[in-house]
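> run fold ASTRA-associated protein 1
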Amino acid sequence: MKADIWVLPSRERLHAAIGKGQLDVPIMPGTDGRGVKNATGIIMSMHLMPEGTSSEPSSSHSESRFKRLRLLASYENGSVAMWQYRADKERSVEGIGWARCWTAKLHVESVMAMAVSIKYDFALSVSADHIIVRYDLAALNIDANSVSTSCSAHRTKHPGNGSIVLRDDGRVCAVGGWDGKIRLYSTKTLKPLGTLVYHKDNAQALAWARPADQSLKEEIKGQQTDLEFDSDDEMTAAEKERRERWLVSGGKDGRVAIWELMDFGGKR
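> ok
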């Protein structure tokens, strides 16, 4: 399947049909009846990012690479692929200028959700199966042929996962299961850290709290008229630290829960 990139709010399409023709295969007998020519199936989730990681040293070389877009996409057949725009033009059509850097397929079922670290140095995906896959994006950015060593599958005891989110520090992830339970894991070892039980059905949405960007706070302040601006500047350091450990979950049961979690200690 193909992806497009749009600019909002102008609704201009910058890139069209990313991936067109590069994953197509002839239609074979016994398909699912949709007449799909693409062996990967539909796109299940995507993340748009610059090339490289945010922790790389600043240089003319790295700065030029940051201007090149990358698109990490997961698919119905359980695979994940990284695409990169390598042309000099600002816009593209029919997928021209986009190249696939690497593809990994470690899930045996459809990828249901994917999360990328704030530094773009690794990603995690969950599926209808019982596997959590970790992708070392920093290593793959250096050597796209290192898929076998840079991507690893971690088997859990819980099949059927529909959502995943990473804490900003990259140390902890939360996975929402079809059974309504939310399971916490270390992102380094994928060892379980605990389970949150509240939802009666699929935990479909997860989000970690994060401190407001200063420029955003100033913009909001400028738009306030009669409403009082609730600033976190009045909070103590301890209160801010506790707030950043909040996890919000939403389930198919229509419930929303806010969890205050422990720090889990240590460094990633």
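The first strand starts at residue 3 and ends at 7.
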